[in-house]
What we know:
This protein is about 15% helix and about 15% strand. It is α+β, with helices and mostly antiparallel strands. The chain has a two-stranded antiparallel sheet with strand order 1-2. A two-stranded parallel ribbon has the order 3-4.
Amino acid sequence: MAGAAGIEASNYREGILGWCRAGLPLETDDHQPTNAVHPYWRVFTVPEHYEVRM
Length: 54
């Protein structure tokens, strides 16, 4: 589904951490692959193969 800015996007029920737990790919704004994820609070567990950015 295209959002207001014309960007294809989906709402993933589990959020970014569920996306990571499912092993789905992440990319930067310029479409480069990344493993960096910002969990907002350290109480959230991020899978080991991702780089936590606070």
